[in-house]
Write a structure and sequence with these properties.
The strands form two sheets. The protein has a five-stranded antiparallel beta sheet. A four-stranded antiparallel beta sheet has the order 3-8-5-6, covered by helices on one side. Strand 5 and strand 6 form a beta hairpin. The protein is of the alpha+beta class. It has four helices and nine strands. It has a single domain, classed as Jelly Rolls (Sandwich).
């Protein structure tokens, strides 16, 4: 695992445009990681203790469907944020996640980022706003297609 820097974070789509001091603080909570294809990152319902910004590769998001087993609900790829569940009590993953390909990512300690939230409300607000944008995008991608309105 390699240490990450504010300069590294400034190139991430999710963090683009954040204040340098916020990036510096976040860098202290992160490290670079590499996972092989088919590696399970987490299971639905487990405690969410970290999150990732994907630098290369793809991760499938899955959910357990009673009677059917695991069903893939989407995927996160290069430039994407993996996991928002760490930020909302009870800090349990809503989906599971498994690497489709080899994945290189920036991994962050949820405990450390929540500590940063407590000490810097401006950072907390900025990250929360960005997290909600990701959640809204994921919900839109799961929404059923709408049929045309009858004339």
């Amino acid at each position: 695992m390699l240490e990450i820097t504010a300069a590294t974070l400034s190139r991430q789509r999710f963090l683009c445009g954040m204040r340098p001091e916020h990036l510096e603080a976040l860098a202290s909570a992160g490290t670079e990681v590499l996972f092989p294809a088919r590696h399970r990152l987490f299971h639905e319902g487990d405690y969410a203790d970290r999150f990732w910004l994907i630098e290369s590769g793809y991760v499938a998001l899955d959910v357990h469907v009673p009677g059917d087993g695991l069903s893939v609900m989407g995927q996160v790829g290069i430039g994407g944020l993996l996991s928002w569940s760490w930020s909302v009590p009870p800090h349990e993953w809503v989906f599971g996640a498994v690497c489709i390909t080899e994945v290189r990512a920036l991994q962050f300690s949820a405990t450390e980022v929540r500590r940063l939230y407590a000490s810097d409300p401006e950072l907390a607000g900025e990250l929360t706003r960005r997290l909600f944008q990701v959640v809204a995008g994921r919900l839109r991608s799961l929404a059923p297609l709408r049929s045309p309105t009858p004339a």
